[in-house]
Amino acid sequence: MSVPNKKLSLGIFMPNCSNMCSISSHNVVEDQWTFVSNQRIAHLAEQLNFDYLFPVSRWRGFGGDVNYLGTSLETMTWASALLQTTSRIKIFSTVHVPLFHPFVVAKMGATMAHMSGDRWGLNLVSGWSNREFSMMGLKLPEHGEKYQKAAAFIEILQGLWQPQTAPFNYASKWYNVVDGVSLPRPVKLPEVANAGASLDAQRMTARLCDWAFMSLPSIDAANGMVDTMRARADQYHRSIKTAVFPFVLWRDTEDEAQDEIQRIIDKKDSVAAQNWFDDLAIGSESFDFATLDLLTVSGGGIVTAGTAQSVAEQLQSLNDAGVDAVMLTFQNYEKDLKRFAVDVLPILQLMGVV
Ligand SMILES: Cc1cc2nc3c(=O)[nH]c(=O)nc-3n(C[C@H](O)[C@H](O)[C@H](O)COP(=O)(O)O)c2cc1C
């Protein structure tokens, strides 16, 4: 069901957390998570005409020697600052439903929309790792309820952001809005993404979100999932865009690329990887495909490795599958983004993919 000649939007799944994105001690860029580094990457992405920056929201790392994702920049404040030093690229914040009140997000989001010429977007996530919420004394609801609460959260945002003539009221198990108003309203409705994968998440995303941000085991899996999400959205007479987050690694030969993947796996932080895997097993209803090695290499993104030509072809396949955007991850974001501009981007342009 792909649209012929549709261009693939490029984005970056940003390293606002330490050790993005491999759960490994191989070739770690120690200061990549810092704001200065993120800012350089954002500027580079903007120069290269990328469309999106997406951050990760984490409150605690996954232990092991590397304490995977253990140091991270909070993403509302991060986006607010980055929006000020960029001029065109769209920047999302990733917000945990259990930790923010929709009124706070409505106001902060509208503020960022106003400050940036409507370049801010929201990635709303329900939370899955109890190790971060239990340290705050919070217990995540059971899986279905997490997405009912996320739906209520988005409906309240929509109620507050859309022009209303009457006061906005909303009653639910979690929020009770009486004569609700939040000014300023954004001029354009901010785009809302959800990064869940389960059936509960898919249904909620299809009904209420603009983007489904998906974790998939392979390029082949994208074909089916794009069609599934579109069909689900169609049931609500809506359209939905889809994004995935390929981990791109290329070398002069396929063998060299595979050797580098193997080195990442050989230096796996087994404790952090197991903690991540165990938390996912308890807190999500997805990631059945996840093997420790796949998670280790890409943090759950599609491993897109080979030569520059084959990486470009793999991204082309995602475009052919109907995926609207790829939020790329790299080993060394700054260095690899510069190499990407020289090695891969021209091939994608020649192919007409971007
Ligand atoms: C691309 C992508 C990005 C995600 N980003 C975050 C994040 O920043 N913080 C977080 O707690 N969960 C994040 N998640 C996890 C999801 O929100 C969700 O909890 C997880 O995929 C389990 O899905 P499920 O609840 O539908 O089973 C992300 C997932 C994906 C696929």
Provide a compact summary of the structure:
By secondary structure, this protein is of the alpha/beta class. It has 13 helices and 12 strands.
Structure commentary:
- The model has no long low-confidence stretch (mean pLDDT 95).
- Helices cover 44% and strands 15% of the residues.
- It starts with 8 loop residues before the first strand and ends with a helix.
- A hairpin with a 4-residue loop joins strand 5 and strand 6 (176-180).
- Helix 1 packs parallel to helix 12, helix 2 (75-85) runs parallel beside helix 3 (102-116) and helix 7 runs parallel beside helix 11.
- It has one domain (9-349): Luciferase-like domain (TIM Barrel), CATH 3.20.20.30.
- It has helices at residues 35-47, 75-85, 102-116, 130-134, 143-161, 199-208, 219-235, 254-266, 270-283, 292-298, 308-320, 333-343, 345-351; strands spanning 9-13, 52-54, 90-96, 120-125, 168-171, 176-180, 192-194, 211-214, 241-244, 247-250, 303-306, 325-328.
- By secondary structure, it is α/β, with parallel strands linked by helices.
- The strands form three sheets. It has an eight-stranded parallel barrel, surrounded by five helices. A two-stranded antiparallel ribbon has the order 5-6. A two-stranded parallel sheet has the order 10-11.
- It has 13 helices and twelve strands.
- Bound molecules: flavin mononucleotide.
